[in-house]
Amino acid sequence: MVKNHSAIPSKDGVLVLRPTKGWANLNLRDLWQYRELIYFLTWRDIVVRYKQTILGAAWAIINPVVNMIVLEVVFGRLANMGSEGLPGPIFRYAAVMPWGLFSKALATSGRSMLSNRSMITKVYFPRLIIPIASVLGGVVDFLISFLVLLGMMFYWHVAPTVNLLALPLIIVLALTTALGVGLWLSALNVLYRDIGYILPVLTQLLLFVSPVGYSTSTVGGKWQILYSLNPMVGVIEGFRWAVLGITPGTVIPLWNLLAISVGVSLVILISGLFFFRRMERTFADMV
Amino acid sequence: MGRLAIKAENVSKKYQIRQGLGGLQTSFKAILNAPFNWLMRQNGRYTHFHPSETIWALRNISFDVEHGESIGIIGRNGAGKSTLLKIISRITRPSKGKITLYQRVNSLLEIGTGFNPDLSGRENIYLNGSFLGMKLSEIKQKFDEIVTFSEIEKFIDTPVKYYSSGMYMRLAFSIAVHLTPEILILDEVLAVGDAGFQRKSQEKMGELLSSGATIILVSHNNNTIRNLCERTIWLDNGAIKMDGTSDIVVDQYSKFIREEN
Ligand SMILES: Nc1ncnc2c1ncn2[C@@H]1O[C@H](COP(=O)(O)OP(=O)(O)O)[C@@H](O)[C@H]1O
Ligand SMILES: [Mg+2]
């Protein structure tokens, strides 16, 4: 009789509001009913970002190119680290792309609950929409940054392989990982504002323990399992495998690295969803 | 008795006021202070350090609302009016008791929720409509009507940061009055625009009412309450002080306020 959580109860639907304790169910149906709002928020984040900058969409290319150059100088030229037989710039750019998607998603979703405070305290919608839209907002930049990769592949004669068919799956893995971490950070940021300051430092640290500037094969054999607990390891090596057709010369096969990453990523996502849902009911009172 | 729209049973709401900056700093302080607090308690002495203070914004509120009723809510600042509306709107949960909603609720606790200054009027209609729970198809269908009602046709593609505050309010309000709610919740948002626009808005509310919508509205304007609401609930210090015919409750409330001053 009682449709407990339906957002917009049908004509005869009844909604009961009462104190909640303990763990809340995920209520993905509610999320589905509000799917248009996910679209609108994602669209808003993208449009506003481009309207506020002079160069607009050009940043989607300038950012990763500059990052690639810095990494190429530091890891390629100064530290003389290999690039699995490919030209350094293309090898590093192929990692900068998913890394950019991930780090931007962390930055925006981490502060998303605070930047959308006025909506959270004034209107009901499933709060999960906010971090989800912040993560999706980075996808357009990511797609634009592909142009440079295509140019580099053309220039250095790196032909795409059938691996390219797996690219959508790798992108989903990247988004899943970003959303999982983003959920934790956005919920924690409501409780502890300090997260906003920790976040850039954390992202910087993660960059060095992810194979962005170097290859996972550089990591000592026995450390590779521990290393691949960082889900971005699977994302980045998987991305290079999909677009450049290269497999890192690691002791552990790429598939095992990927499997570990997928596992860790799912654990972070699911725990993040439950943690967020649990914290959610206090957001409107606390932000 | 008509059909029920809302049933509130012994609803209470507790707020925790976090001291200082909140967050990690408070947590650290609480941890550092814990042993001292414990020692003081052992000595039977009170401590100065409270990790948080609690406020009961609502205490044991119970009422029924029937289909098509229009109810005014009045009371001094801090009486708990907004808190009650927030619970009915699902923005926050009650701490005790329960509320049953038998109809779909649309809330307007603020004008222009989610408006973005960099977006045009047109873009904000879509964004804000979506926040208020409208479907895309519904917004498209009502778009022209909203723009006409707001009287800002010429500026519809201008970013709203260039609007005067009057234009901004009119646009925001026009979106809201084009909702087709079963239950409409309004928190002090009826006093928008010039006299003409206000009359138009009140007429729109009247139309909504005669079409059978249920309305709950908080207002500091006694005339608005008398015109639009048959029944009024007076909240004082989180509790219901009076619940009855608007004319009687508003009179009593005005007398109470006058005597207090
Ligand atoms: N998020 C919050 N955290 C702590 N206290 C709050 C919060 N919101 C409201 N209060 C307190 O609850 C009481 C009732 O507030 P409110 O419902 O806004 O009153 P009204 O709308 O009648 O002026 C006030 O004492 C207010 O300070
Ligand atoms: Mg109020």
Report on the architecture of this protein.
The complex is a heterodimer of chains A (287) and B (261). Chain A is mostly helical. Chain A has one domain (28-286). Chain A has twelve helices and one strand, in the order βαααααααααααα. Chain A is globular and about 60 Å long. Classes of the chains: A mainly alpha (287), B alpha/beta (261). At the A-B interface, strand 1, helix 2, helix 5 and helix 12 of A face strand 1, helix 1, helix 2, strand 4 and helix 3 of B. Strand 1 (15-17) of chain A pairs antiparallel with strand 4 of chain B, so a sheet runs across the interface. The structure holds adenosine-5'-diphosphate and magnesium ion. Magnesium ion (MG) binds next to helix 2 of chain B. Magnesium ion binds at residues 81-82 of chain B.
Derived from helix and strand composition plus strand pairing, the structural class of chain A reads mainly alpha
**Helix amount of chain B, in percent?**
40-55%
Would you count the extended β strands of chain B for me?
Answer: 9
Instruction: Domain count of chain A, please report it.
Output: 1
Helix fraction of chain A? 55-70%
CATH class of the largest domain in chain B: Alpha Beta
So, the CATH homologous superfamily of the largest domain in chain B? P-loop containing nucleotide triphosphate hydrolases
**How do the helices and strands follow one another from N- to C-terminus of chain B?**
EHEEHEEHHHEHEHEEH
Q: What structural category arises from helix and sheet content of chain B?
A: alpha/beta
Overall number of domains of chain B: 2
Mean pLDDT of chain B: 87
Parts with pLDDT < 50 across at least 5 consecutive residues of chain B: none
Q: Work out the radius of gyration of chain B.
A: 22 Å
Which ligands appear in the coordinates?
adenosine-5'-diphosphate, magnesium ion
What distance lies between the first and last C-alpha atoms of chain B, to the nearest angstrom?
40 Å
Total helix count of chain A? 12
